[in-house]
């Protein structure tokens, strides 16, 4: 499984022959100015919630590539009304089997509204179960006891957790979350894009190491295999 990072909470997963993009906020992000969104070409776009820093490029990318947007009902409907031809609406607790694996929508504790002020439903995370790996994309969330339900249903290989604080968990809460979901390895996200969420990279890595967790902080444009 190849993972490429585009900044903030935007990642492309290449799962077999399928390309799955999460939370595309790229073109307004000065840190991601070298990323060409025309080169991404996802089959599916999974959106955790409606805030601008998670949906900004979704319409353009979806229309350019005939991608399917997978999101909570209100967000899927909003994109459908904007002319995105392929959407799949979901809600918390539901799951869908797609060509690359099974996607379950799980709780996230966060607000959600769309850029024009429309109702964004509620924020969500995703557990994605593929043939070879199972992972949790937490979206924007506070630490919540609901995370303890995830390992009762899934054996996770890794997770993607926000660590920027202010709007989401910080590294300390993320480490508790990692214990709740029973993973020793997680990719950090939702940090550095804005002054409110700037972090000290060496400090958070040290904190994670002291907790015996492997924290992966990817460079924008970097790809790794997990």
Quick tags:
226 residues, alpha/beta, Metallo-beta-lactamase, Chain A, 7-stranded mixed beta sheet, globular
Which runs of at least 5 residues are low in confidence (pLDDT < 50)? none
Task: Compute the number of strand runs.
Answer: 14
Question: H/E element string?
Answer: EEEEHHEHEEEEEHEHEHEE
CATH class: Alpha Beta
Please bin the fraction of helical residues. Answer: 10-25%
CATH T-level topology: Metallo-beta-lactamase, Chain A
* Mean pLDDT figure: 97
Domain unit count: 1
Looking at the overall shape, the CATH architecture is: 4-Layer Sandwich
Strand composition percent: 25-35%
Strand order of the largest sheet: 6-5-4-3-2-1-14
The structural class is alpha/beta
Distance between the termini: 6 Å
Name the CATH homologous superfamily: Ribonuclease Z/Hydroxyacylglutathione hydrolase-like
User: What's the total helix number?
Assistant: 6
Principal-axes shape call: globular
Taking the sheet with the most strands, its summary is: 7 strands, mixed
Characterise this structure.
Helices cover 20% and strands 28% of the residues. The chain is globular and about 50 Å long. The chain has six helices and 14 strands.
Task: Provide a quick synopsis of the model.
The protein is 20% helix and 28% strand. The protein is of the alpha/beta class and 226 residues long.
């Amino acid at each position: 499984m190849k993972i490429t990072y585009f900044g903030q909470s935007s990642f492309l997963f290449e799962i077999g022959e399928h390309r799955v993009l999460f939370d595309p906020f790229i073109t307004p992000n000065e840190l991601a100015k070298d990323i060409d969104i025309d080169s991404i070409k996802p089959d599916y776009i999974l959106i955790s919630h409606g805030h601008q820093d998670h949906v900004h490029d979704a319409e353009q990318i979806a229309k350019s590539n005939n991608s399917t947007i997978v999101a909570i009902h209100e967000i899927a409907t909003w994109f459908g009304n904007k002319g995105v031809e392929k959407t799949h609406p979901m809600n918390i607790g539901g799951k869908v089997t797609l060509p690359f694996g099974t996607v379950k929508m799980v709780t996230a504790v966060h607000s959600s509204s769309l850029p024009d002020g429309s109702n964004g439903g509620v924020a969500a995370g995703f557990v994605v179960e593929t043939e070879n790996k199972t992972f949790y994309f937490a979206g924007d969330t506070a630490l919540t006891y609901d995370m303890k339900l995830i390992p009762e249903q899934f054996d996770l290989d890794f997770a993607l957790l926000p660590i920027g604080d202010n709007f989401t968990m910080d590294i300390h809460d993320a480490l508790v979350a990692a214990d709740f979901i029973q993973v020793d390895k997680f990719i950090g996200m939702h940090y550095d894009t804005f002054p409110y969420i700037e972090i000290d990279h060496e400090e958070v890595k040290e904190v994670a190491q002291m907790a015996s967790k492997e924290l992966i902080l990817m460079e924008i444009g970097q790809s790794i295999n997990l």
